[in-house]
UniProtKB/TrEMBL annotation:
The record marks E111 as: Important for acyl-CoA specificity. Pathway: Amino-acid biosynthesis; L-methionine biosynthesis via de novo pathway; O-acetyl-L-homoserine from L-homoserine: step 1/1. GO terms for cellular component: cytoplasm. It comes from the Bacteria. CDD domains: GATase1_HTS. It comes from Prevotella communis. PANTHER family: HOMOSERINE O-SUCCINYLTRANSFERASE. Its main location: cytoplasm. The record marks S192 as: Important for substrate specificity. Keywords: Acyltransferase, Amino-acid biosynthesis, Cytoplasm, Methionine biosynthesis, Transferase. Substrate binds at K163, S192, R249. It is found in: Cytoplasm. This is Homoserine O-acetyltransferase. GO terms for biological process: L-methionine biosynthetic process from homoserine via O-succinyl-L-homoserine and cystathionine.
Length: 305
């Protein structure tokens, strides 16, 4: 798909080498098409990596997307050059009066903290509330999914005895839904988290629909407001080497590091990962863009409410 990206964004060159079609703003302006406006609130430490992972998945549709990056005013990232943030990101406050067809809010490395202890919690709550009236459909990923469920519905999170780390089989509970169109009876999803949400807490809220779960990793995907909100506890966006990088970064440094499950060939970290989730990841994001953003958003973006 033709993705409209800021000129000189590092992801452009990376994805072109993978034969993924992207275009910068200079070329996109020559096309007389109303693109879908997508905003990404990137809370992950390695922002360039996360940008590339998400853009890779968003590229698998014929629709034109105008990608925007949002940052928090109340938090300064330590692992991304300030020049990159200044060039490609805008504070939420400067975007408050804009509307977007779709939004993605990533995970964040703060899951072991109480929500209210997170230094930028007040701003996150402000953004969550804003998204409900300024975005057609929003994907909440990992910590953002837990935080969104807590803020909107009071769903608590629970600490795990050991990290949920690896690739786990998931089961669509409502396979007839458009978000699962083209899916098999099972699909795989990467997880990397120290906390979880419980199924009974989701089922206690009639406004929430549990639409995918796993015998190993538990609650997988929750939908609300007819698809205007999806809460995903794992990381379909992860590239093949993400868990490998995380494991080798933490092994020998942290006491709770175990081999990621169902990931390395023959459970041997000297061998490459066995990639089992990418096809469904691409399909999930394409279905979201098609059925829950493109087909639901008004042509006049200002009519989103």
């Amino acid at each position: 798909m033709p993705l409209r990206l800021p000129d000189r964004l590092p992801a452009i060159d990376i994805l072109k080498r993978e034969n993924i079609f992207v275009m910068d703003n200079s070329r996109a302006h020559s096309q007389d098409i109303r693109p879908l406006r997508i905003v990404i609130l990137n809370l992950m430490p390695l922002k360039i990596t996360t940008e590339t992972d998400l853009i890779r998945l968003l590229s698998n549709t014929p629709l034109q997307l105008d990608i925007n990056f949002m940052k928090l005013k109340s938090h300064t990232p330590k692992n991304t050059p300030i020049e990159h943030m200044m060039m490609f990101y805008r504070d939420f406050e400067s975007m408050r009066h804009e509307k977007f067809d779709g939004m993605i809010i990533t995970g964040a490395p703060v899951e072991t903290m109480d929500y209210e202890q997170v230094t930028y919690w007040d701003e996150i709550v402000d953004i969550f509330n804003w998204a409900r009236t300024h975005v057609t459909s929003t994907l909440y990923i990992c910590w953002a999914a837990q935080a969104g469920l807590y803020h909107y519905y009071g769903v608590p999170k629970y600490p795990l005895e050991k990290k949920m780390f690896g690739i786990f089989e998931q089961h669509p509970l409502q396979p007839q839904m458009p978000i699962f169109r083209g899916f098999d009876d099972t699909f795989m999803m990467p997880h990397s988290r120290h906390t979880e949400i419980h199924k009974e807490d989701i089922l206690a809220h009639p406004e929430l629909e549990l639409i995918a779960e796993s015998e190993e990793s538990g609650v997988s995907i929750v939908m609300a407001r007819g698809g205007r909100e999806f809460f995903i506890t794992g990381h379909l966006e992860y590239s093949p080497n993400t868990l490998d990088n995380e494991y080798k970064r933490d092994f020998g440094v942290r006491s709770d590091v175990e081999l990621p499950r169902n990931y390395y060939r023959n459970d041997d970290p000297s061998q490459p990962p066995l990639v089992t989730w990418r096809a469904h990841a691409n399909l999930f994001y394409s279905n979201w863009i098609n059925y829950y953003v493109y087909q639901e958003t008004p042509f006049d973006i200002n009519k989103i409410e």
